[in-house]
Predict the structure.
Amino acid sequence: MRQTPDNIWLEILENLDDTARQDVYLRQVIPLSITSDALRIAVPSVYTHDRIERRFRTAIQSVLATLIGAQCMLIITVDESVSDIPEQVENPESEINQQVETGLNRNYVFDRFVVGSSNRICHATALMVSENPGREYNPLFIYGGVGLGKTHLLHAIGNRISANYPEKKVLYVTSETFMNEYVESIMKRTSAEGFRVKYRRADMLLIDDIQFLQRKEGTQEEFFNTFNDLYLNSNQIVMTSDRSPDTLENLEERLKSRFEWGMVSKIEMPEYETRLGILRQKCEDQGLDNMSDDVLSYVAEIVTTNIRELEGMLVRLIAQSTILKEELNVDFARQVLNDVASPALIPQRKTATAKGIQTVVSEYFGVDAAELVSEKRTKELVLPRQIAMYLCREMTQMSFANIAQAFNKQNHTTIIHACTRTEELIKKDNETREMIDVLMAQLR
Ligand code: ADP
Ligand code: MG
């Protein structure tokens, strides 16, 4: 099994945000070696070294912690000969310029996008748009949860257009970049014209994560004008968002309604077969041809919420098996995934019982198990009760109605409320997440 420093570095880049990914300095990095204690990289100058230290160390370190383990340190060395490595010199300028100009990531293409029932319509509309830009489906609005392939599709459209119509100016940006450049253009009068030209002369604008414009009134105004210009000239606009246009908040009505003029397409989490297909595709992308199908099936079964997480698991397994020199089989996979991943973030095998959950939770919080299922609504009981309900949903096969019964509730809306609330807490509060981790670990 092959897990090179290059692969680890690519995975780290993947996990940084788009602005970082496009950073010219990060692109100069040459990964040297990887062990369980250190990732060594070389950079061509002290300046690059300092810049990476200052701006990216924390983010890189945190990706390393999930991929390899918290003990793994990033070690950056300066080696001036790095910039002379033939591969890099081949055509460094044009490579970088092209990336900056279009913003496109060439790895995200249609050929590497696995189609299943969860994304079939989205994929078809994206293809249609890239065959016939500005005609049908303008604007195209793709929405769905985190890590489901929106950004991949957006780049795929751009890459296809660039290949089929090399003369067309394609521009990919996140709406955050759009805002930053807009703000800069106001502050420096000299760049105002450059900003307009850049965005309004694009033949195709691919704008990612449009939900970021919520509450940014000034940028919304500018985007509105850009949108109108492009639209009136029949230039294609494609947007992505983590939610549908009608549920975007603090966004001008006239923008929302424009978002719905063309086609609005939802992308969902793929079912098991597609998840397995995606894992096989990722192995192929990386030239891993001897990956055991059992391991892939196991990962596809375990990770059900997010494709980025799905890929992350795979990389993590390969990294660990290389570093620990262990064969990568299902047993090893199970062991690693239990050790490394936060159980609150991976779906659980549903083997717990409501009684077991109530006992563990009441012991943890020092409350009486009988009171957990009583009518009493005192403060010390509310949170433990909600968490117990959530755990029932996650760790048992019970339906909402069954869970309601187990807690002596007439109505299962209480349970739905408890689950949503706990999910929110897990997302934004580390302490709650750790607590759920501990409880889940006990229940397993
Ligand atoms: P989003 O923008 O929706 O948060 P991304 O497009 O960044 O998600 O996707 C996360 C990762 O999952 C990327 O590495 C992407 O290549 C991969 N991915 C998502 N959907 C698919 C798919 N259908 N086929 C292959 N890879 C996919
Ligand atoms: Mg995205």
